[in-house]
Write a structure and sequence with these properties.
The complex is a heterodimer of chains A (196) and B (244). Helix content of chain A is 57%, strand content 20%. Chain A has helices at 3-22, 28-46, 52-66, 69-77, 86-105, 108-111, 167-181, 186-194, and strands spanning 115-124, 127-136, 139-149, 156-162, 165-166. In chain A, helix 4 (69-77) packs across helix 5. The longest helix of chain A is centred in the N-terminal third of the chain and has 20 residues, at 3-22. Chain B has 244 residues and is mainly alpha-helical. Chain B is built from twelve helices and two strands, in the order H-H-H-H-H-H-H-E-E-H-H-H-H-H. Chain B has helices spanning 2-15, 31-53, 63-76, 78-87, 91-106, 115-118, 128-134, 153-165, 168-171, 174-198, 200-205, 209-225, and strands at residues 142-145, 149-152. A two-stranded antiparallel sheet of chain B has the order 1-2. In chain B, helix 1 (2-15) runs antiparallel to helix 8 (153-165), helix 4 runs antiparallel to helix 5 and helix 7 crosses helix 8. The chains are: A alpha+beta (196), B mainly alpha (244). The A-B interface holds A 21, 71-72, 74-79, 81-82, 103, 106-107, 110, 124-127, 138, 149, 151, 158-159, 163-166, 168-170, 172-174, 177-178, 180-181 and B 63, 197-198, 201, 205-208, 211-212, 215-216, 219-224, 228, 232-238, 240-243.
Amino acid sequence: MSHLSRRTMMIAGASALVLPTAGFALSDAAAKEMVVRLVADVNAVISSGKSEAGMIADFAQILDRYADMPTIARYTLGADARRATNAQLTAYVPAFTIYIADKYGRRFRDFIGGAIIVKDAKAVKSWIEVETTVELRGRPGFRMDWHVSDRSGRNAFFNFIIEGVNMLLTERAEVGAMLDRQRGDIDALIAEMRAS
Amino acid sequence: MKTSLSFLVLAAVLGACAPAPQEGGINDPYETTNRKVHAFNKSVDENVFGAFGGDGTGAGISPVLTDRVVRFAQNTGGPSLVLNGILQGDVEGASVNTMRFLLNTTVGVLGLFDPAAAIGLPEQDTDFGETLAVWGVPEGAYLELPVLGPSTERRLAGRIIDWVINPLDKVGTVEQKDYGTIAKIGARVIKAGDASGAIDSVLNDSADSYAALRLIYLQNRRYDLGTTPPEDAVDPYDDLYGDQ
């Protein structure tokens, strides 16, 4: 292999690494379409009349289907993810999914009689931001934005923002506090989340 | 008398502003005191709002009645919203709030009803804290105030100024002012009860409810003022561990 061709290959390799961030592989329309399906599933759960436990179980399935849970979970561990073993990281993702489904699923009773409406989609940094409003019965609604990306290999949301409150940032702080309470023991944190 | 006392408090607050306040991030030099106030607020929340219906949401009171109290109180704050809109150079917001105050005070029976919202004029909420932000005053340190809850030094200064300059004090009758004050206190209790329902999980389920409330408040307040720092738009694909 000549020196020139090796350099060409290195450049090609570097471009391949840069490409996913430089160009938007995911269109506004595709991201919006995904959120429309997600919202239809969430609205169906809200109006299903199921028990709270039933709604939480349904919500966990929706998270697995539409969210990039491995990325969300790892981000919330913060710098502690660097010292976690592969086995701990593997166990953490489903435990964190249970914790999130339980925490946010409990709020669904506030949404009964209401609905989520998809408004608009636009490119922000390397992802698509899909704006929705949550309409509540007899009370003012609120804005909820979904951040959608295909960098996990499929179209999935990796963050949502409720009236400016950022789920990734808020949950990273919360997980940090939970880990502090467990004196930094990641296995104990996983056990605590599984029990939620 | 009221005015001179307020300016003393205001001067003390502004003078106490922590050095080098930053927008973005968390600036909490009074954390030790704030945490004590937080513990007090939690006990107030459990004992006072818990008493209304057991669930702390004020569910024991008719929602129609609570709505009326909140609307009446909000309407008395109308002139203050207009004044702050003007001070911020927000012509549209000030115009909408002027129309709202005129319509709701007349057709809406002193603000008990909200016909303005029905014709597409929702309240453009603001306060002197926002005016100070528009004028470039930094956010200052985070504060947790007794009963009132999370705040910042700039928001507290704004509250005091709003109280001093409330235009209804100058144009309203004695009765209007008295009912306005009573309704505002009532509305605060009702809204705090509502909020406690919504943030119940934050306060009760969080491993560190003080830190969780602080983070949620600051993010929401900055969103309302349009001062969300750009670094809050996190990209977990570029910054996998969230520490870069």
